[in-house]
Design a protein that fits this description.
Blueprint: H1 2-31, H2 37-56, H3 64-85, H4 92-111, H5 115-135, H6 141-162, H7 166-199
Helix pairs in contact: 1-2, 1-7, 2-3, 2-7, 3-4, 3-5, 3-6, 3-7, 4-5, 5-6, 6-7
C-alpha cells in the first residue's frame, strides 16, 4: 500500500511539472509577440518543441517521455542559443549547422541510449548563451541578466535530467524558456527606447 501511494504521489508531481512546462510554453508563445521577427520565430519553435515534451509525459507509452526529454530540450536549447547570441539573425549556414548537429545529438542519445550526448549539447548551448550575454552586459544590464539567468536554468535542467530528476528538469527548462523570452523582449524594448531618445536629441 505504501509503495502504491508513493507511486501515485510521484506520478502526480510529474504530471504537475508537465502541466507547468506546458503552461510556460503557451505563455512564452504569447509573450514572444514583443520580440524581433527572427527571434519570435525561434522562441515559438522552441516553445512548440518543449510543449511536445510536456505532452509526451501524459501519454501511456513506455519511455516516450524520456526520449522526448533528450531530444526536445537539446534542439530547443540550440534554437534559444541562436536567438540570444545572434539577436539580429545568425548566418543561415550557421543556423543549419547548429540545428542539424543538435538533432543528430538528440537522436543519437535516444537511439544509443547515451543521454550524456544530448545533455552535453544542451549544457553547451547554455554556456554559449551565458558567455554571449556576459560579454555585452554593459549594453543592457537588465535584459542580459535575465538571459544569463535563463542560461543557468537551461544548464541546471540538463544536470537535473542527467541525475534522473525529470520533474526538476522540466521546471528548470520552463523557467529558462520564460526568462529568455522575457530577455529578448526586454532587449528589443530598450533598443526602441534608445532610438527614440536619440531621435529626440536628448542624448549626445
Amino acid at each position: 500500500m505504501r509503495k502504491a501511494y508513493s507511486f501515485r504521489m510521484a506520478f502526480s508531481f510529474d504530471s504537475l511539472c508537465a502541466a507547468i512546462l506546458f503552461a510556460a510554453t503557451i505563455f512564452s508563445w504569447r509573450m514572444a509577440r514583443g520580440a524581433r521577427a527572427g527571434a519570435r520565430v525561434k522562441l515559438r519553435f522552441a516553445a512548440m518543441l518543449l510543449s511536445a515534451w510536456a505532452a509526451a509525459l501524459l501519454l501511456p507509452v513506455a519511455d516516450l517521455g524520456l526520449a522526448i526529454a533528450l531530444l526536445a530540450p537539446c534542439v530547443a536549447g540550440a534554437i534559444l542559443a541562436l536567438a540570444v547570441c545572434f539577436p539580429r539573425g545568425a548566418p543561415i549556414w550557421l543556423s543549419v549547422l547548429v540545428l542539424v548537429v543538435a538533432l543528430a545529438a538528440g537522436l543519437f542519445a535516444v537511439l544509443m541510449f547515451l543521454p550524456v550526448v544530448a545533455l552535453a549539447y544542451q549544457a553547451g548551448a547554455a554556456g554559449m548563451i551565458l558567455a554571449s550575454v556576459l560579454s555585452r552586459l554593459d549594453e543592457d544590464p537588465r535584459g542580459n541578466i535575465l538571459a544569463a539567468m535563463g542560461a543557468v536554468s537551461l544548464f541546471l535542467g540538463a544536470m537535473a535530467l542527467m541525475s534522473g530528476a525529470m520533474d526538476s528538469a522540466m521546471l528548470f527548462v520552463a523557467a529558462s524558456l520564460l526568462l529568455l523570452t522575457r530577455a529578448l523582449k526586454t532587449l528589443v524594448a530598450d533598443e526602441r527606447v534608445g532610438r527614440y531618445v536619440l531621435i529626440g536629441r536628448e542624448r549626445a
